[in-house]
Design goal:
InterPro entries: QdtA_cupin_dom, RmlC-like_jellyroll, RmlC_Cupin_sf. The protein is built from 1 helix and 12 strands, in the order E-E-E-E-E-E-E-E-E-E-E-E-H. The chain has 135 residues and is mostly beta strands. The protein is globular. The two termini are 16 Å apart.
Length: 135
């Protein structure tokens, strides 16, 4: 089972001309991308996420601002990642409960391994603990 971890994308360019970073399936992104979405203008007091997935893998990137991502694995292992560089993302595997808290200027880009399917979501923490048999 893969664990949440940071992925550093190439940062190509220079400060006088700007930068480009690239993520490709079968490269640093460990799955074929089926869906892309982004969140923005989230109030700093709001915690988003608060769910896990049965099958979906994701890579989250703060293309602007700061995002604090907290993950919990079925065995109770907790990781906290601070994303504040557009060339660094965090891999979130299936079965990881995750939350995100944003600076007001944050823009989050997400690459997902599946299309949206409500049946893939575990939205109640108690259900997450039961579904994955966490101890």
């Amino acid at each position: 089972m893969q664990k949440p971890h940071l992925i550093e994308f190439p940062k190509l360019g220079a400060s006088d001309i700007g930068y480009i970073s690239v993520g490709e399936a079968n490269g640093l992104i460990p799955f074929p991308i089926e869906r892309t979405f982004w969140t923005y203008f989230t109030p700093e007091s709001i915690v988003r996420g608060r769910h896990a997935h049965h099958a979906t893998e994701q890579v989250l990137i703060a293309v602007a601002g700061r995002i604090i991502v907290t993950t919990e694995m079925p065995d109770g292992e907790v990781h906290t990642f601070v994303l504040e560089s557009p060339h660094v993302g965090v891999y979130v595997p299936p079965n990881a409960w995750h939350t995100m808290q944003y600076s007001h200027t944050a823009v989050q880009l997400v690459f997902a391994s599946t299309r949206y399917n409500e049946q893939d979501y575990i939205r109640k923490y108690e259900d997450f603990r039961q579904v994955w048999g966490a101890k």
